[in-house]
Design a protein that fits this description.
The chain is of the alpha+beta class. It is 37% helix and 28% strand. The longest helix is centred in the N-terminal third of the chain and has 50 residues, at 13-62. The termini are far apart.
Length: 134
């Protein structure tokens, strides 16, 4: 013969509190991970835009028909990013000691202006240009 048990099956209050604490910790960790991922993606998008603009400035300067030795800085855009453009002549000669003329090195560097600090270099690109090509 079986005796009837007065206890019912189920979870105790302690078990429920532990489960809720575990789910809360998991939820907070997941929220932090999603925030970190979204910040990384937005920074990556901003960096890609800066690199694309850097290439555009480099292409525009290198295709100029009257390329001369020059150094200038653009004014900062809305994001505080400015571009330093340097054009320097190259003195190269071939095996016959003939100097190659109208060669220039074009270097463009992107800077971010940070309040209270010096400007921060973001990216740089350079190329050699034969000015008579375009």
């Amino acid at each position: 013969m079986r005796l009837a048990s007065k206890t019912r099956g189920g979870f105790s209050l302690l078990e429920l509190l532990m489960a809720m604490a575990l789910f809360a910790i998991a939820g907070v960790s997941l929220a932090r991970a999603i925030t970190l991922i979204s910040l990384t993606v937005s920074e990556s998008i901003e960096d890609a835009a800066v690199r694309e603009q850097l290439r555009a400035v480099l292409l525009e300067v290198s295709r100029s028909p009257n390329l001369i030795e020059d150094s200038r800085t653009t004014s900062p855009d809305d994001a505080g990013i400015s571009y330093e453009i340097e054009v320097e002549p190259l003195t190269l000669s071939n095996f016959d000691d003939l100097t190659l003329k109208d060669l220039f090195e074009v270097r463009v560097t992107a800077f971010r202006s940070v309040a209270g600090r010096q400007r921060e270099t973001i990216e740089s690109a350079n190329t050699w240009v034969y000015s008579k090509m375009f």
